[in-house]
Amino acid sequence: TRSLLGLKELSQQEIQSILDRAAYWEQHPSKTHNLLNGKFVANMFFENSTRTRTSFEVAEKRLGAEVINFSAAASSVEKGESIYDTVRTLESMGIDAGVIRLKPVGMLAEIAEKIQVPLINAGDGNNEHPTQALLDLYTMQKHFGTVQGLKVAIIGDILHSRVARSNLYALRKFGASVVFCAPDNMRAAELNAPYVSMEEAIQADVVMMLRVQLERHATGMLKSAESYRASYGLTVERAQQMQEHAIIMHPAPVNRNVEIDSELVEAPNSKIFPQMANGVPIRMAVVERALS
Ligand code: CP
């Protein structure tokens, strides 16, 4: 199958071919195509989402697929049905591909081994978020022409971030250098990237801020929003010290005035909303790849 479970195992060529196909779809902006007419794609979200779920739906509809939006909260998951049994149920009804977001790390790989239809990872716990990193790479390539040689600083809650992991795996394959910046209790010991000070991080070509993921925190991890902002937030003052050519990125949702000042979200050097726009052609390329 043409599943996409993560970027760790994908080659640079495979990733580039997805980015190239996304560029094709961006250059062919007519609202709908009939490439996937008659194909059924199920979006199965066992964790909340705005951007990923909606942009997959837009992407699938633009390709002409039939879309089934499965919401765990309104399903028999509430009666205790497992994620595996839920996916198996939809497969037995004849879906052609599934997009899935879930919390438990490792479960997606297990399910993918038992399921025949291709599965696309829309975020699994703190493991990977491959389509987010693809749209991030796409955004960087579009802005800088190439990712090779870029210095990318990923700042914030690295410990809980699947975005940091997928970006680290992919950016390295493309010859970018990745540094992290995080308070001690938000670092991920198993990831092999150097931690730098905030002063150094904001000198990178790409300043990628991460959301403080309060819903995944043990109590007491964040002393206060104000103290976090003071030490690790991209404030207006810090943004003024960035290089002229540098860009701000953030996967969103954003905690305004915690990890990034509200005024910076739509600043001229911010790619936060362009990242979301780029999510559609990226997901068109990924869904097409799964079904072709
Ligand atoms: N960036 C991202 O994955 O956003 P959602 O959680 O809203 O999908």
UniProtKB/TrEMBL annotation:
Residues 2-141 form the Aspartate/ornithine carbamoyltransferase carbamoyl-P binding domain. Keywords: Pyrimidine biosynthesis, Transferase. It comes from the Bacteria. The gene is pyrB. Its EC number is 2.1.3.2. This is Aspartate carbamoyltransferase. GO terms for biological process: 'de novo' pyrimidine nucleobase biosynthetic process; 'de novo' UMP biosynthetic process; amino acid metabolic process. The keyword Transferase applies. Belongs to the aspartate/ornithine carbamoyltransferase superfamily. ATCase family. GO terms for cellular component: cytosol. Catalyzes the condensation of carbamoyl phosphate and aspartate to form carbamoyl aspartate and inorganic phosphate, the committed step in the de novo pyrimidine nucleotide biosynthesis pathway. PROSITE patterns: CARBAMOYLTRANSFERASE. GO terms for molecular function: amino acid binding; aspartate carbamoyltransferase activity. Heterododecamer (2C3:3R2) of six catalytic PyrB chains organized as two trimers (C3), and six regulatory PyrI chains organized as three dimers (R2). Carbamoyl phosphate binds at R51, T52, R101, H129, Q132, A252, P253. It comes from Paenibacillus montaniterrae. It is an enzyme of class 2 (transferase). It holds the Pfam family OTCace_N. L-aspartate binds at K79, R162, R211. Residues 148-287 form the Aspartate/ornithine carbamoyltransferase Asp/Orn-binding domain. Pathway: Pyrimidine metabolism; UMP biosynthesis via de novo pathway; (S)-dihydroorotate from bicarbonate: step 2/3.
